[in-house]
Amino acid sequence: MSKFSNHNFAGQKVLVRVDFNVPLDDKFNITDDNRMAATIPTIKKILADGGKVILMSHFGRPKDGPTEKYSLKHLVKHLYELLNADAHEPATKVFFADDCIGEQAYLTANMLRNGEVLLLENLRFYKEEEKGDEAFAEKLSKLGDVYVNDAFGTAHRAHASTAVIAKFFAADKKMFGLLMEGEVISAEKVLHQAEKPFTAIIGGAKVSDKILIIENLLERATDIIIGGGMAYTFLKARGGKIGASLCEDDRLQTALDILEKAKAKNVSIHLPEDSVIADKFAADANTEVRPSDAIPDGWMGLDIGPKAVGIFSEVIKNSRTILWNGPMGVFEMEKFQNGTKSVALAVAAATATGAFSLVGGGDSVAAVNQFDLADKVSYVSTGGGAMLEYFEGKVLPGIAAVKE
Ligand code: AMP
Is any ligand 1 atom within 6 A of the Cβ of residue 51? Predict the structure, then answer.
């Protein structure tokens, strides 16, 4: 594997796997361009060196080959705008090929001049992409002299363009892009070089989604804070009365096992001592604060309470490494956002005094953005599923293939 920032791309055709899987409204307007914007520094470095950029991405989940709805052509205009936001620089030309392999793709790639960009049509118009088909990967590989993987969001998939393709490039001709490199460095820092105390904050709706990550973190963290809907399965397993709160009854034993293992490994598990409870799952519900293990029938815990906020914030502020995945409550509703917001503020405060903090996973990322704290934490991951699998201890095919 080569290092992206040391590489001079002058005159080279650089095949870059990006994650342009952005949401569109029904008029094909992009409603959130974060994934595109995140990879612009990688593209600009190649262009600044005098290289040619060939971008490939998946887009949505097309079932039957080419479909208008899933065409990447809808993104060309915005890509042009992102690349040409600075009016002082000469405009970067952006071309589109309506196939990701085949004659037109090769001809356009070969016609590109230094400093120009080509976006290929959706990789998933070929079922071979998700199957990790070798012949398809080889055809894609012929489009570039160098392969750059900047798609962390799909690094957990062994697809043709994310993993299999890497074998067709020599070690010095494949590398991570700047986005991917940032993700990998941050994740490795937390998983393998964490300064102690290391606190993992795990929240969200379901225990079943987070069992593997908690088990892996039991080997590494000093403290695990459990909030959100998933906390009530643990509280019930310990004999608490949780009323109508979210609960996975088939996971009660798993929750007890986790609590036992934590004790044996000397990891402190922090469950919310109190909760903001509601008489219905609605923004206009009546609310009260009660101990989390004494919730009346018909009421449900929808946020952590003030005592829990105090205790969790203390633990977080005393940490040197922090990993946060999942909200502390139904933060989408104003009445139940205090827990998530307070935790976000505590993570920001710890970061300001030198802790390394990584926020990963869709809803906690949405939360730090909502509270305008994204630039107050050390790293915000763009790859939800990929980051989760990384912290479950799995090898991500997209990372392994480039490192080989
Ligand atoms: P996840 O995707 O598993 O991280 O879960 C995120 C979702 O969990 C968010 O939409 C939250 O609204 C929801 N959530 C968090 N806390 C609770 C709770 N106490 N009860 C019900 N849903 C919750």
Answer: no
Instruction: Evaluate if residue 362 carries a pLDDT over 80.
Output: no
Residue closest via CA to ligand 1's atom 2 equals: 204
Separation between Cα atoms, residue 75 and residue 54, nearest integer Å: 15
Mutation probe of ligand 1 site: the residue of 226, 235, 246, 334 with most atoms within 8 A of C-beta: 246
Instruction: Give the pLDDT score at 32.
Output: 87
Average pLDDT in the 119-148 region?
A: 98
The pLDDT tens digits for 91-115 are: 999 999 999 999 999 999 999 999 9
Torsion of CA 289, 290, 296, 301, to 10 degrees: 70
Nearest by Cα to 313 from 363, 272, 277, 354: 272
- As to burial, measured by CB atoms within 10 angstroms (0-12 exposed, 13-18 middle, 19+ buried), residue 263 is exposed
Ligand 1 close to Cβ of residue 145 (< 6 A): no
Buried b (16+ CB within 10 A) or exposed e, 279-294: eeeeeebeeeebbbbe
Say if ligand 1 is within 6 A of residue 274 CB.
no
**pLDDT by residue (tens digit) across 24-76?**
998 999 998 989 999 999 999 999 999 999 999 999 999 888 999 999 999 99
> Which ligand 1 atom sits nearest the alpha carbon of residue 232?
19
CATH 3.40.50.1260 domain extents, the chain: 3-176, 187-391
Asked if the 3-176 domain carries CATH number 2.60.34.10, the reply is: no
Distance 34 CA to ligand 1 centre (A): 23
Ligand 1 near 189 CB (within 6 A) = no
Q: Options 3.30.390.10, 3.40.50.300, 3.40.50.1260, 3.30.540.10; which CATH number does 187-391 get?
A: 3.40.50.1260
Atom of ligand 1 nearest to the CA of 332: 12
51-60, 76-85, 141-150, 357-366: segment of lowest average pLDDT? 357-366
Partners of 290 in beta bridges: 275
Q: Tell me if 227 CB under 6 Å of ligand 1.
A: no
